[in-house]
Design a protein that fits this description.
The protein is of the alpha/beta class. It has 9 helices and 9 strands. It folds into 2 domains: 160 residues, Rossmann fold (3-Layer(aba) Sandwich); 104 residues, Rossmann fold. The strands form 2 sheets. A 5-stranded mixed beta sheet has the order 4-3-1-2-9, sandwiched between helices. A 4-stranded parallel beta sheet has the order 6-5-7-8, with helices on both faces. The radius of gyration is 18 Å and the shape is globular.
Amino acid sequence: MMHRSVKIRYIDPVGVSDTVERMAAILGAIKRPETDLEVVTLDPGHPIDNLEYRTYEALVTGNIVRVTRDAAENGFDAVVIGCFYDTAVLAAREISGDAVVVGPAQASLDIVRNLAHRFSVVVGERKWIDEMESLIESYGLRRFLTSMRPIGMRVRELQADPERTKALLMEQAQKAIREDAAEAIVLGCTVEYGFFEELQRTLGVPVIDCLIAAFKSAEHLAGLKRDFGWKPSRVWGGEPPPEEELKRWKLFDTPAPIGTRVRVCAAAATAGDVTGRGSPPDQG
């Protein structure tokens, strides 16, 4: 079956991001030619550059929902919420219309469970572990998790010195395999991009880059939606808020809070077709 063209919006859920163009370039280089990709940041009104704390997650949740609703209204087939906490995925999925909503953690775990019995997640800070363990447990996969190993780096530090980050990731991944009997490694932050190939070659086990895992899962699910009509359920737990209430309360009357916007057009095979900051999406 020929893949139909699909539209995917990747939401980097922070208002200040110097990595969005790099993410767009990475995803643009691996997307299918027929995929239309848009990478956006939120414009929360505050200079939040990470979601390491539940406080920050709470502050951006409403904007994630609004940007997801906007994607549904503008014909996107899938939305990725770019945080390994899978921030607001359930709320966004409820309001996403026909668009599939994907979280990096769930996508990465789905992939790694097809490749290994037990896995370890390498994260930035120890602070992250409590919420991520709870998330993995909610997906019914806690018993397959051998360990969660921090490298002692915050989100904003992960790309500041790539060689140092790579060395720390390698150290903890080797310990996870040797000491915890992990059969695969999941990189537990979307900003831990650019490292998986060398880690995988050296370690000899699958290393899942959650940025790539989330995007490729969204691309696959968007194709299934187009080809077979497999889209989010809208009954019982999947029932969305009544449109009458949304209109009466004017919850989505203002423009979606999008900050930076980078587009990689359909039929572009490489990241050379990435557009500049703030360019409007082509909805035609």
